[in-house]
What we know:
- Chain A has 108 residues and is α/β, with parallel strands linked by helices.
- Chain A has 4 helices and 5 strands, in the order βαβαβαββα.
- Chain A has helices at residues 8-17, 32-44, 63-68, 95-106, and strands spanning 4-5, 22-27, 53-58, 76-81, 84-90.
- In chain A, α2 links the parallel β2 and β3 (53-58).
- Chain B has 9 helices and 21 strands.
- The two termini of chain B are 53 Å apart.
- In chain B, α1 (15-26) packs parallel to α2, α1 packs parallel to α6 (289-318) and α7 packs across α9.
- The longest helix of chain B has 30 residues, at 289-318.
Amino acid sequence: MSLExxxxxxxxxxxxxxxxxxxxxxxxxxxxxxxxxxxxxxxLQPQYRDRVGFYYVDVEEDKNLSQRFSxxxxxxxxxxxxxxxxxxxxxxVDEDEVIDKIAExxxx
Amino acid sequence: xxDVTYDLIIIGGGPAGLTAAIxxxxxxxxxxxxNKGTVGGLVNTTREIVNYPGYGQISGSDLMKDFKKxxxxxxxxxxxxxxVSVNFAQEDKIICTKKGQEYTAKAVIVACGSEPRLLNIPxxxxxxxxxxxxxxxxxxxxxxxxxxVVVGSGDxxxxxxxxxxxxxxxxxxxxxxxxxxxxxxxxSGERAFQNRKMEFVWNSTIEEVLGEANVEGVKIKNLKTGxxxxxxxxxxxxxxxxxxxxxxxxxxxIGMDRRGYIPVNDLMxxxxxxxxxxxxxxxxxxxxxxxxxxxxxxxxxVAERYIEELNAFSTSVLKxxxxxxxxxxxxxxxxxxxxxxxxxxxxxxLSEPYKVVKVDTATKKNLAQKYxxxxxxxxxxxxxxxxxxxxxxxxxxEKLKAQLR
Lengths: 108, 405
């Protein structure tokens, strides 16, 4: 299943108002590394249904979001819990790294 | 879960693997490509390819989509998975993946390509995504108006460096060699020297990436003087060459060179029977899409022949109702040709109690190895695939007859 894309408004609502435990991948269409990491998240998503939200931000469409977190590259996966930024993973991460990070920062 | 037994399994879906798949599929081999991530491999990272015949100009990922579509049209199966271990010791090769699948195949083509080499210097991993980058297409825009350092001087370093100048204020290239010497092609080198945003630091390498939360600079070491200097910057792009992605296969006993590249002969055969290596992960001179494709075609045709031999051998020898005389000969060896004629004659005179199967050791080394045959002519007597004895070589018909009775 594909990831739900967020824009500046929905980002605000889901991360800060609802305080969902979630991860957000910052990505761009022309990035080949992103094309490898996004499917990894798409496959993991069902395992975490109702526990962890999986979202997608296109850095070209929403430049201000990547600037807000002073990101210097894609893909990066940012982890949020209780309305607060917790941690991030950069580059070509694999399934295990994502699972470990979720366990560490979102489910501990 | 799909099928787990195939004729041909190809590990890696870059141009070498996809071409092998096209040939395998067309030869009606049950063919599976196991590929981690998006099909296309490293070619996907190339914005523009201008030297693939028939395509004046195309992006790497578009070209790979065409390769994939072509393979699909011949019924090739694809699995997005990662091979974690292999066992090539038996005739049936076993391949285990990260998703827990265990596949078997008669022949395997290793086409897993290569990956960017890391320098493993302090700060490199910690600041990835915070200024340390490996892909200009992906990340150059984040450095709008900033100072960027590029490490390396190959085609990729110089071409990507020039792309970054579209966004950055200044790009400083750190080069190992003496002034004026770059590893890239001449045309790109000349264009880089003319680019006013490009600067070069010669005879140098990087020792450390500096910065707390984001990259703030790099420590440059001059290899001639041994002196270190710091250069402030907001971004560092590493293009320091590639290493073959063959680590998962090391345990299989396949021959590799010191750096992990697999040596093969003209037929793309490795030192393991039924296992071939193609594209960037083999020892070779030119690593381009067109040469990778050529490798893939060769390996698939050789693999097809190998599988055909296996099948033929299985029906004509191992499952034969009659006892089999497996005659190992060499077409260049007269003695073994004469012996071959004599053996057939003798068998006929005894009203053919045996089926004679001739094996040319020049082309079927694997069979010679399997039966541990070192000299020609040699004859192994098989009953339903089991060896019951070996004949003593003799050019006297009566002596031969006696052994066959």
